[in-house]
Amino acid sequence: VLLFKRQHDAAIAEFERAFALNPNFIDYRYARALIYAGEPARAIEVQEANIRLDPFQSHVYAFTSVMGFANYMLKRYGEAVRLLRECASRLPNLQWPHLFLAAAYAQARQLEEARAEAAENGRLAEIVGDLLISVAHIKHFLLTPLRANDLQANR
């Protein structure tokens, strides 16, 4: 709940408390909180540890999208594209991977691919009626490179 209230530091503290109580506990939302708090490298470490603890994680989105977003924030656009493309191909009707993939393609200067993913995101928005990810969001991600400092303002 704290993560969705944008109380990232408090969320991180609660996750760390949970890990202290149960070192085998894994939750991809901890890595998301770290990314939002401006610590994408640490988020990657957490996700890699999660895979070691549970190599058969069934939630593709939890691993590939979070790892892709963390790599995006670290300006590793090639790796972000690889991970987000996997996520989008395995979960083709989920909008977020297409949005992040469009942004990663744009940053990697693969503009045709970026436009195609942005269009796919728009198509999915029409189908599910999800206004959360709008054309304005897509333009923001395509035209404005995200940096950890940008996310610091949302803390």
Q: What number is the mean pLDDT?
A: 79
Spatial extent as radius of gyration: 15 Å
Q: How would you classify the helix and strand content by structural class?
A: mainly alpha
Distance between the termini: 14 Å
Total number of β-strand segments? 0
* Main sheet summary: none
Q: Report the β-strand fraction as a percent range.
A: under 5%
Q: Per the principal axes of the C-alpha atoms, what is the gross shape?
A: elongated
- How much helix, percentage-wise, in residues? over 70%
N-to-C SSE string, H for helix and E for strand: HHHHHHHHH
DSSP summary: helix tally: 9
Low-confidence stretches: 130-135, 141-155
What does this structure look like?
This protein is 71% helix and 0% strand. The protein has helices at 8-21, 28-36, 40-53, 60-73, 77-90, 95-107, 111-128, 135-143, 148-152. It is elongated, with a radius of gyration of 15 Å. The protein contains 9 helices and no strands. The model is unreliable at 130-135 and 141-155 (pLDDT under 50). With 155 residues, it is an all-alpha fold. The longest helix is centred in the last third of the chain and has 18 residues, at 111-128.
